[in-house]
Amino acid sequence: MKNVAALPEHPAAVDGRTRDRVARLLLAHGSATAAELGAELGLSSAAIRKHLDAMLADGAVVSRERPVRGHRGRGRPARVFVLTDAGKQDCGTHFYDGMATAALRWISRNNGAAAVSEFAAEQVSGLEARCRAAMEGAGEDPLARAEALADALTAEGYAANASTIASGGQLCQHHCPVAHVAAEFPQLCEAETAVISRLIGTHVQRLATIAHGDGVCTTHIPAQTITVRTE
User: Is 165 helix (H, G, I), strand (E, B) or coil?
Assistant: First the structure.
């Protein structure tokens, strides 16, 4: 009997798997440019653009300018792609969000709001330890520490950046892994803010959160603690 060559996979199946890989990379990193996605997946610019265009049309991702630290050079700013709520749901994350929310409701109902706060603090303790290790050598300057923390948080999937502004400094997080849960249980945001304050080494103030419907989680670092640095 002759060997029968395996039939090639249908292009739609291959495209579907590639799109899943793109979505999971965006879920892990928070945001990424087309070039970054293509490099990680081993795809050409044309190929990755085809997938991103389809995801944009389906409402699975949105595109926005990447925040730039310091002086912006010539040329157009890089555009990053971020999963929408619908895109995250395609990845199955809302199933786990639902379980986490149900668990916190049970804790709150049986042990009170203080128990939820204790749980939230314990959950972010691992993040704090990893970020503290990554920030080793950042020095004592709050802005330098904020920049190091932004890099550490980006590695954790928060797509963060830090910058100097007229009223001090700010740390922005463009992705929140627990936004849907934190919308009902703000203790998660409060615990994270406390971690940011301890890691930067000064009082900070949360101005906006993704959990409350803002586009970015923004944490303000008061001016009196910032030494403004010139380029």
Answer: strand
Contact 120, 104 (CB under 8 A): no
Which residues have CB under 8 Å from 1's CB, separation 6+? none
Residue with tokens 């709001």: 113
Identify residue 32 by its one-letter amino acid code.
Answer: A
- Residue 101 structure tokens: 């929310």
* Exposure letters 162-188 (e unless 16+ CB within 10 A, then b): bbbeeebbbbbbbbbbbbbbbbebbbb
Q: 80, 31 in Cβ contact below 8 A?
A: yes
Q: pLDDT digits over 140-163, tens only?
A: 988 899 999 999 998 888 889 999
Nearest to 204 by CA among 217, 188, 186, 185: 217
What would the two tokens of residue 182 be? 């934190």
Tens-place pLDDT, residues 27-59: 777 788 999 999 999 999 889 999 999 999 999
List the structure tokens of 22.
Answer: 């793109």
How far apart CA 83 and CA 99 sit, in angstroms, is 21
The amino acid occupying position 193 is T
Supply the pTM of this predicted model.
0.61
Angle between helices 34-41 and 11-29 (to 10 degrees): 120
Whether 202 and 171 have beta carbons less than 8 Å apart is answered as: no
